[in-house]
Amino acid sequence: MIDPTSIPGEEKAASLAKIIVPAAIFIAIAILPFVLKNRFYLSLINEMMIFGLLAMSLDVLLGYTGLLSFMHNAYLGIGAYIVGLFLIHVSPTSLWLACFVGVIATSLIALPVGWVQVRTGGLAFALLTLAFGMMFFTIVWKWYSLTGGDDGLMGVPSPEVHLFGWHLGNTGDPAVMYLLTLFVVSSCYVLTRRIINSPFGAVLGAIRENEERASFVGINVRRYKLYGWMLACILAGISGALFILYKGYIGPTTMSAFAGAGILMMVLLGGMGTLWGPLVGSAIFIYIQDYISTMTEHWEIYLGLVVIFLVLFMPKGFVGLGNYLKRLRKG
Amino acid sequence: MATNCVCINIEENGLRSVIGPNGAGKTTFINIVTGRIPASSGKVFFQGKDITNKPTHELVKMGICRTFQITSIFQKLSVFENVRIAKQARLGGTLRIFSTKKSLRKVTEETWVILERLGLQDLAHQPAKNLAYGDQRVLEVAIALAGDPNILFLDEPTAGMSPAETRHISKLIKGLSEEISIVLVEHDMDMVMSVSDKISVLQYGSIIAEGKPEEIKCNPQVREAYLGKEQ
After folding, report:
1. Domain containing B7 — which CATH number?
2. Cα A189–A195–A196 angle (5° rounding)?
3. pLDDT in tens, B33-64
4. Residue B47 belongs to what domain range?
5. Are B19 and B199 in contact (CB under 8 A)?
6. Tens digits of per-residue pLDDT, A1-14?
7. Residue A156 phi/psi, 5° resolution?
8. Which of A9, A59, B116, B198 qualifies as a FRET site for A244, CA 20 to 30 Å off?
9. Looking at B116, B147, B178, which one is the last position of a domain?
């Protein structure tokens, strides 16, 4: 007899391993700054987490809604510039207000862009993301008086961090920034996971699988694509806020198409449609980038070769490799 | 392909078949009524309301559902999810971004009812792409039914099915036609003649005959155009 309230495949949703493994990873990352005295590695992991959040937000589009964005880094950039400008010109100490303003402003800019983009589909959508991305890149590059142009936005103050009434320290301190990033990124991960598994996430999945059928079951496809786009851009804006707090600086190259391709690679390296895959992909990408750039200044060439190798032999990314090993063990 | 001068009145409940030679405009007719392609002229009315060129998702909300000639399902989703998402789109709750799918109890329960009615309950956990072709066609009917239609358009539901599967689905369709209106486009003449309450015959985008199955069988114009001249 079938239980009429059960959903096939979701019966064992709360298995112990699914809670223990992420919790163990979280704790391991959280105690690192208290154990590891090497500031360099803290910064590296910090960067992995920030770009991991951006790659995860792109996965919401690519893996869950089936939309390709070539320059999702544009929305990290917009978020970062706005938070930076707010800290410089409005209030150098209001950390949370600056982040709030930055994320709201990013979504206000992303809204009309998304409105235009969802009126197309497939390749046209992807090309429009490229066109808008280039446009934003050119604006921050040429608007010297506001953004600092080529030189980038410099002298962003480091505000104090208060979390639940608890004074952590200054964002200029790598350990403090690290803990702040960990807190924000893991909260975003948990929330996004929840959204993806919700009835709303199910609609995005239906659109990815078959857009026409989705509209013929009564889904307003354009509207939900726009909601998916907005979710992805809000998350990207949050990663931008973390970026400027972490670096204290942003230049236009962070918003270039070249950097955008990097974000796409992170998603593909990790495995799209998994949410945690892109976080891993970002860690792999940034580690390789860092490792190779200590040996040669033409690190892009070697990084490209590594990525080609990984795409050819691990087409489903890191996640696919894990599944492959699991099958191998079972015989 | 085009249709012109297609004036069909479809009654509440009952089964109306639309037949005609290849290229007569049967699918085009369905596509225009269900909003898949825009009508360049003419009007479509539903329950007295003008619904010409309305977006498809709004038509579904009014209870106009359909299946496709070429199977259109959510391949990678489970059979259950295929039907569940249609039910959810119909009943609402889609904007609950922090709830679980399970929290929409009515959606889950009604999904099981549909799956059981169509005999798909044992395949519920399977990805739709793993299903046999005939089962995929039945799944497509299940998805359309989840929209709680007042009128259901079936575009060649038995295309490519085995005789046993065809019998199963025609029994199902006949049963449904007692509750809702069904418009059936079909090539299988035996099936059309046995299940239809009324038949419309299309040729070159126009209706050439309309009537009960027996009348259509005897209509000389139809025999010439569609069933072939007598030797």
Report:
1. 3.40.50.300
2. 85
3. 888 888 888 888 888 888 888 899 999 988 99
4. 1-63+149-231
5. yes
6. 567 778 887 765 56
7. -75, 125
8. A59
9. B147
- One domain for residues B56 and B87: no
Q: Domain ranges for chain A, please list them.
A: 25-255
Please tell me the distance in Å from B45's CA to the nearest CA on chain A: 18
Write down the residue that tokens 């506001």 correspond to: A146
Query: Cα separation of A296 and A279, whole Å?
Result: 26
Residue B68 within any structural domain of the chain: no
Q: pLDDT tens-digit profile of A218-239?
A: 999 999 999 999 999 999 999 9
Q: Are strands B206-211 and B198-203 parallel, antiparallel or unpaired?
A: antiparallel
Which one of B84, B100, B108 has the shortest CB-CB distance to A197? B100
From chain A, the residues in CB contact with B97 under 8 A are: 194-195, 198, 200-201
DSSP letter (8 states) at residue B129: G
Question: Residues of A at the B interface (Cβ-Cβ below 8 Å)?
Answer: 2, 4-10, 191, 194-195, 197-203, 205-206, 209-210, 212-221
- Asked if A45 and A29 count as a contact pair (C-beta separation under 8 A), the reply is yes
Cβ contacts below 8 Å, chain A against chain B, sum to: 122
Q: Which two tokens stand for residue A257?
A: 């198409």
Asked if A218 lies within 8 A of B61 by C-beta distance, the reply is yes
Q: Pick from B66, B99, B102: which is nearest to A10 by CB?
A: B102
